Amino acid sequence: MSQMSPDTDGITPALTRRDDIPDSQWNDWHWHMRKRVTNLGKAREWIRPTPDEEEAIEKTAGKYRWSVTPYYASLMDPDDPDCPVRRQAVPALGELMDYSGAEVDPVGDMFYRRTNRVVHKYPDRVIMLITEACPVYCRHCTRKFHTTDVDGTYFEKSEGEDFGEDLRYIADHPEIRDVLLTGGDPLSYRDGKLEEIVSGLRAIPSVEIIRIGSRFPVLLPQRITPELCEMLSRYHPVWLNTHFNHPKEITPEAERAVDRLLRHGIPVGNQTVLLRGVNDDVATMRTLMTELLRIRVRPYYLYHCDNVTGVSHFMTSVEKGWEIMDGLQGHITGFGVPQYVLTTRLGKIPMSRPSYRQTPEGLVLRNYQGREMLLDDSVYPLTETRVPAPGQREGGR
Ligand SMILES: *Cc1c(COP(=O)(O)O)cnc(C)c1O
Ligand code: SF4
């Protein structure tokens, strides 16, 4: 019956809101990095944690890294533990449970690791894991063993090693024409260090495109400064893929960051991970994809969530992925539809359900509404041997 909110009862401190912070601080990415939420006390400045969240924060401490930028924290619903931003950012007890088949590295990055930082899985392109640092340690990170697992990091003590060996490997393999900088988040480096890496790659004649995988546009868009964009644009062609998972993440700040990248000639794509309780429904995904197009971000991949140790509670079935793809394909424009892939030791496997099926009568095609038609194979032959000679069809069946 009391109208008193927990904000004013004198026991729980009032929550911080975006408007409490002066623009000069809010717009400064260094301020956000310094003010990151890293413990329960700081989390209470932004949200009212549930007992489960409190327990998870305590029990994951010392096992998994945790931090949340004030910017990303401000997107969390303070009262709703099911908030999709909160689910991605606040530890959950599921991270500590045993799930069958879970592995720290199910996609085999370690198996394909050729130098300290270079993972060479496909002949023509490599990823370079250049850091383990991220502005927010996403709970669903597919490289959790590398970014957030306090013991099991990929680098052990080698993160500070110079890049000579990595760049030499790439230069010695001229079939590599495409280098994707990832981590961790490459934009965690200051501009000067990043420029050393990017210019080192650009000096290798066989490297055609440089790609950056970064979640800063989502987790701390203030990092996308004019100086950063100007620097990157001196090493074109540079592409950037980011990682929006929910429409709530598409804010005016994110939109400005994307716009700045695009104006500097850096195409921006997006990789979404299909996450239980975050974006595993058609309506959310459709809004996400159309909102991405509105801010001129091109959807690229929809990743099936890997069975990674500490992440398995986010997994959905493959059927859920099909349902989502069926809800996108044809319902929105083709370039708003990402490719649904599952990452394995054999690489990324396209997983979309075919929109046709083989029958004794021929191929039956299905449109986005589920309507079907038989493809006339006298008009569209399936095999080369049945391609009619010119004129042969004249006066045909
Ligand atoms: C994802 C990935 C790439 C890049 O794949 P694209 O399909 O070209 O985006 C390259 N190497 C590794 C090891 C990867 O996991
Ligand atoms: S920003 Fe990317 S690499 Fe870093 S924790 Fe999040 S998903 Fe993992």
What does this structure look like?
With 397 residues, the protein is an alpha/beta fold. Helices cover 27% and strands 15% of the residues. The chain is built from 14 helices and 12 strands. Helix 13 packs across helix 14. The radius of gyration is 24 Å and the shape is globular. The N terminus is likely disordered. Bound molecules: pyridoxal-5'-phosphate and iron/sulfur cluster (SF4). Iron/sulfur cluster binds next to loops. Its cofactor is pyridoxal 5'-phosphate. Keywords: 4Fe-4S, Iron, Iron-sulfur, Isomerase, Metal-binding, Pyridoxal phosphate, S-adenosyl-L-methionine.
In short:
The chain is of the alpha/beta class and 397 residues long. It has helices at residues 23-26, 29-34, 40-43, 51-60, 70-73, 84-89, 144-147, 164-172, 191-202, 216-219, 226-233, 252-263, 282-294, 318-328, and strands at 118-122, 125-129, 178-182, 209-213, 238-242, 268-274, 298-304, 339-344, 347-350, 356-359, 362-366, 372-374. The longest helix has 13 residues, at 282-294.
CATH superfamily of the largest domain: Aldolase class I
- Taking the alpha carbons of the first and last residues, their distance comes to 81 Å
Taking pLDDT < 50 over at least 5 consecutive residues as the criterion, the unreliable ranges are 1-8
Number of strands: 12
Ligands (ions, cofactors included): pyridoxal-5'-phosphate, iron/sulfur cluster
Basic shape = globular
Mean pLDDT across the residues is 94
Tally of alpha and pi helices: 14
How much of the polypeptide forms β-strand, as a percent range? 15-25%
Tally of distinct domains? 2
Structural class: alpha/beta
Would you state the CATH class of the largest domain? Answer: Alpha Beta
Strand neighbour order, sheet with most strands: 1-2-3-4-5-6-7-8-9
Pfam families: Radical_SAM (PF04055)
Cofactor: pyridoxal 5'-phosphate
Protein name: KamA family radical SAM protein
InterPro entries: Aldolase_TIM (IPR013785), Arg_2_3_am_muta (IPR031015), Lys_aminomutase/Glu_NH3_mut (IPR003739), rSAM (IPR007197), rSAM_sf (IPR058240)
